[in-house]
Write a structure and sequence with these properties.
Blueprint: E1 8-10, E2 17-23, E3 30-38, H1 43-62, H2 73-83, H3 90-107, H4 120-132, H5 137-156, H6 186-193, H7 196-204, H8 218-249, H9 253-257, E4 259-260, E5 267-270, E6 277-280, E7 291-294, H10 297-304, H11 329-342, E8 346-349, E9 356-358, H12 361-373, H13 378-385, H14 390-396, H15 402-417, H16 438-444
Parallel strand pairs: 4-5
Antiparallel strand pairs: 1-2, 2-3, 5-6, 6-7, 8-9
């Protein structure tokens, strides 16, 4: 490419400056630019113009200046999905594809739209449109982070000369709320276990549809209801097992459904070591790294309750209500949310709309993290939760429950001194002797 770029000094009758001209090796078109050197007819000015042209030629050959991108949005998206996203986890692929779809809808991007048209201003407008549509600041930040990474990649491989500036949100709405849900208590979890059949029936309900003038009789509907109740009763133990597994393991729902006893290419239980472990292939893990991770003793006990001869295939195999075969992630998520609603376990309420969010699979993971946050150091909890950074662990789990910490402090003080708070001066004992100074004693604990 460098040999094809040759910058020459040219003169035009209607221009007062010497001009420089070269042929773009990518497009084959001539490019013209002023040298800013006046045409006086003197050799000195001509030599100066040739010097400027030589410097510009070197800059072009080094790649400092690149022509506007001719790549279309559709070409960029196809290439990014083929070369980058295919190596990511399925969840990441789906998430980025959703971001691209939203960008196309908001900015009216067509496949033949030039990628260079995605300017700083248009991306700023995209952020404003998401905010007006009621998207949370965390959602907006996630969208922009994926776009920033994709456009930075486009610049690195030479599709565009430099990526547009993506201004990340600097404010946080909602009073600093950290979680979309909350940890579920042990009592609430027991209520969920008692409402498995009700949740299955609620998730499996579909409106009756008649073709033409045909109508279902009340007798037919009653028979269908009885059949559904029978199916729900038969499937309920498999969903109770999944609920207990999520509660004890801290696994994400997709991970639990993809957990096997005997497949090295999938998320797998490893019982060959001193303690049971999880083996996670990088392509299936959110952090995109192969990992061997510990599991908690109570989850290990839960797993070892399965007889050795039955440790084949998936660890969790919840049975669907309306069809046969393995359940999908979306179906399982819908069933577990329906169970949370049937149990009346509310984990969040939208301040604007008043919409109630009921307990879901991820709230069981939050419960797991909160229980173990009281027992482990942050670095250990980070590994157990499989977070990519310690900041995530600290943000969501460490130091969240101030009441629990306060209780522990007061219990420790009471056990150590037996004295009450409120007066920092020396207190008198029944015999009249000076007691222990409360301030001094508390500092010694």
């Amino acid at each position: 490419m460098h040999e094809e770029i040759k910058v020459s000094v040219v003169e035009f009758g209607d221009r007062k400056f010497y001009m420089m001209q070269w042929r773009d090796p990518l497009t084959g078109r001539k490019q013209t630019k002023s040298t800013k050197i006046l045409r006086t007819g003197k050799k000195r000015e001509r030599r100066e113009a040739e010097r400027v042209a030589g410097e510009h030629e070197k800059a072009l050959q080094s790649g400092q200046f690149k022509p506007p991108s001719k790549t279309t949005w559709g070409e960029f998206r196809n290439r990014y999905e083929d070369e980058v996203l295919t190596s990511k986890a399925d969840g990441t692929f789906s998430k980025v594809s959703g971001v691209f779809n939203a960008l196309e809808d908001v900015l009216n991007l067509a496949d033949d739209t030039r990628l260079a048209a995605l300017t700083d201003d248009r991306l700023s407008g995209y952020q404003s449109a998401l905010r007006k549509a009621g998207r949370s600041e965390d959602t907006i930040k996630g969208h922009l982070a994926h776009l920033k990474a994709a456009l930075r990649w486009a610049a690195e491989v030479g599709i565009i000369s430099k990526p547009p500036k993506v201004r990340m949100p600097s404010r946080t709405k909602g009073g600093g709320k950290l979680m979309k849900g909350r940890p579920v208590t042990a009592e609430e979890f027991e209520r969920m276990l008692g409402k498995v059949e009700a949740g299955l029936l609620a998730a499996g309900q579909r409106p009756y549809k008649s073709k033409g003038k045909r109508k279902f009789s009340e007798k037919a509907r009653e028979e269908l209801r009885k059949a559904q109740q029978k199916w729900a009763a038969a499937a309920a133990p498999t969903w109770e097992r999944l609920l207990r597994g999520l509660w004890l393991s801290g696994l994400r729902l997709g991970e639990a459904l993809d957990l096997y006893w005997d497949r090295d290419d999938r998320l797998c239980i490893d019982l060959s070591r001193r303690h049971p472990m999880l083996r996670i292939p990088g392509e299936l893990e959110k952090g995109n790294q192969d990992r061997l991770l510990p599991i908690t003793p109570d989850f290990a006990e839960f797993l070892l309750a399965t007889p050795p001869e039955d440790r084949l295939g998936p660890v969790f195999a919840p049975q669907p209500l309306r069809f046969s075969g393995r359940v999908t992630l979306n179906y399982a998520s819908r069933v577990l949310s329906a169970i949370g609603e049937a149990a009346g376990v509310k984990v969040n309420t939208d301040a604007k709309t008043g919409d109630v969010k009921f307990a879901s699979a991820h709230d069981l993971r939050r419960s797991f993290g909160e229980r173990w946050a009281a027992r482990l150091m942050p670095q250990q909890l980070m590994e157990l939760m499989r977070h990519e950074s310690i900041e995530t662990t600290m943000k969501f789990y460490v130091g969240r429950n101030a009441e629990r910490t306060a209780d522990a402090i007061w219990e420790a003080f009471s056990a150590g001194s037996g004295n009450s708070f409120g007066n920092t001066s020396q207190q008198r004992t029944p015999t009249g002797n000076a007691g222990v100074d409360a301030t001094t004693d508390s500092g010694a604990i």
